Amino acid sequence: MATPTMTRESDSASRPGAPAAHRAGTFRAAGAQHGASVPARQAAAGPGTGALFDRGATCPPAVLDAIARAEAFSPGFALQRVHYTSAEHVVLTGSYNKVSAVAKCRLSAHPDTSAVSSALADEIVVARALVRERPPVRVPRLLAADPTHGVLITERAPGRLAAPYRHPAQAPVPGAVLSVLGAVAKLNMWRPAGDGFERRLDYLALLARYHHDGHIAESDLSCIQRLLRGLVGAPAQFCHGQAMLRNVVLAPSGPVFVDWSCAGWYLPGYDLATLWMTLGCDPDARRRIRDLALGGGLAVRDGFLLALLLQLIGETRRLDRSEAGEAQRELLRCLRMDLVHVRGAIRAAATSR
What CATH number corresponds to the domain at position 53? Predict the structure, then answer.
């Protein structure tokens, strides 16, 4: 009976021009030279960084509007820096009643304001639920929130981000991945009793969509369906939903997880899949994650493989639609290579069911 493998030896492993991480011969993604392709605005700066806000300086109207809403809703918030902006939000740092704080504000100029409002409202619901039921990992303390005005203010955790980018270009400092994996394991075993957390992903609908769009071959669909049938009745697992290193602050007392907007119930292995996909720069970390997934039983193994498939397809679609420089094209190529090997692992797993 065939069993899935998460290691590989391919032609690229011995080809001189192959990316270094691929020459390591592990089932992994993302070339090590891709960090520059991630927009700098996506990197949440560490304490004391970011531009000091100058009210006399030129600033986009949407950002000024967000700042005005934050200050009007929370008079106790004193702005110090515009931390970073994205297409949907601006993140501000400052103090809230003399407590170091971070304010996340919706940008009203976003073309799909209703979707952005809904996402931030969901994040506020989760933040409030985490106050009622404290998870077994550290979470920034909720200070103020207003879904109507699109403002969420939390305490700022001391420390530095475990990684500045979604796909780090360099391996994390020694011990960082171990501490994050330990915290993820605790979180995944948590069983909150409240109703503030939802099932976040419709696996069947997403698989059907990707199959319809040509990202999942007909020959692979029966294997995927076999894994899904085997997961019927498996207990859902509580996951952060975006468990990548750029959402972890390495504080003196241990990892602090930020950005809980996607937290909720998933099939087992979802957080491990997120970490694996975004740690292409660190083959050792990927092997450790692989071993945890394969050693956690059939449900964790199969949930991990399905989550990897969905996340890799989603990531390649996202990168396909964005402006591609040389480093980003290399990242996309590596993620597509990962997809090939994940599909092979799914086929092997299906035969062992």
Answer: 3.30.200.20
